[in-house]
Amino acid sequence: MKLMFASDIHGSLPATERVLELFSASGARWLIVLGDILNHGPRNALPEGYDPAQVAGRLNDVAERIIAVRGNCDSEVDQMLLRFPIVAPCQQILLENQRLFLTHGHLFGPDNPPPLCDGDVLVYGHTHLPVAEKRGAVFHFNPGSVSIPKGGFAASYGILADNILSVITLNDRRTIAQVAINP
């Protein structure tokens, strides 16, 4: 099963349009949205093309293919605009031999992980920093931010294909982090 991951959209219409373009071309079954969808939050500058209502409308076009979790900038008011659920603080996807634990990263994350089995994958956003690595017995994956990248990184998204998690730059599609998750 091929999956695409996007995090920290923060209401950017150009980033949303690019994500949806890449999702359409990717062959991924699901688009996993890791929170902070519509609002920029008080610590971030307004992203390019800030238009939360249009972002909601564009994402609603593929609502049946989105699995999402709530970020620290998401609210119940945001849910009123979106046709897919965003209020769960975490979700889980079961693969054949392991679990993907999806969260935004502000409640569960690298410094406060949920209980995970060896070989499971902690998938989170929040930091806007790309990560694809094994830490101890657990894999960590953060696709970075599609709209407000930090740490000198380019805007990025993630793909899971053939048991490989990759972080890929949004505009030139370079792989900047990658890990094989074969148990």
Description:
This protein has 183 residues and is an alpha/beta fold. The protein has a single domain, classed as Purple Acid Phosphatase, chain A, domain 2 (4-Layer Sandwich), CATH 3.60.21.10. The protein contains three helices and eleven strands; from the N terminus they run E-H-E-H-E-H-E-E-E-E-E-E-E-E. A six-stranded mixed sheet has the order 3-2-1-9-10-11, with helices on one face. A hairpin with a 4-residue loop joins strand 4 and strand 5. Helix 1 packs parallel to helix 2. The longest helix has 14 residues.
Structure described in brief:
This protein has 183 residues and is α/β, with parallel strands linked by helices.
Output the keywords.
six-stranded mixed sheet; 183 residues
Class per helix and strand makeup: alpha/beta
Element string (H = helix, E = strand): EHEHEHEEEEEEEE
Total number of helical segments? 3
- The CATH superfamily appears as Metallo-dependent phosphatases
Instruction: Tell me roughly what share of residues is in helical segments.
Output: 10-25%
Tally the structural domains: 1
State the end-to-end CA separation. 16 Å
User: Strand order, biggest sheet?
Assistant: 3-2-1-9-10-11
Mean pLDDT: 97
Please name the CATH architecture: 4-Layer Sandwich
Kindly identify the CATH topology: Purple Acid Phosphatase, chain A, domain 2
How much of the polypeptide forms β-strand, as a percent range? 25-35%
Largest sheet: 6 strands, mixed
The parts where pLDDT drops under 50 for at least 5 residues are none
What's the β-strand tally?
11
